[in-house]
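Example A, followed by Example B.
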Amino acid sequence: MENFWRFAREDKELLGGGGGVVKQILVDPDKFLGAPYIEGTSLPVSTVLHLAEAGLGPEDISAAYPELTVEDVKAVLSYHP
């Protein structure tokens, strides 16, 4: 279904000036009841946010979910403060 939104997240500051691109945050009404999720994963953004609220840092979250890089986690946290 083409009914989803993509949020760009090329952020040179987050990625150490390298200008790389991390995964996208997608919203698709057919997945996760329309909640934002991280492209290429089965993780809703809320999972990352809950782990961060519980005190885990980006490195810890990335270690728990190897499909996420530290940069992916930082991007999620920066777009959803």
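Example B, a separate protein, is given below in the same form.
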Amino acid sequence: MIVQFSVSPPLEKPSSPPPPGLVQPSLGVGPGHWVKGSRDETEILVEYSDFQCPACRAYDPLVKQLYTKLGDQLFIVYRHYSLTNIHVHAQLAAQVQSFYRLTS
């Protein structure tokens, strides 16, 4: 599992626009991505996971605990990261999960 995590003090909204040339980070989140929480939050967790990965499964309770603790202050983005060279069914599981999510 690859995790990008940012915990920082709350950021104040800038009173003026950013200077020219300053690029705001983009999570690349679109309508098909799995997200939880508000995109306006400063606490962001981007989780890359594999359905067959034992480490990813072991990490899941920590993500749930973090969301329970931070609640609406946390924005979670989930992305499939199937390790097909060692988990032969991971990609298929991700596709089935995505199909199920779209048709439910």
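On Example B: The longest helix spans residues 54-70.
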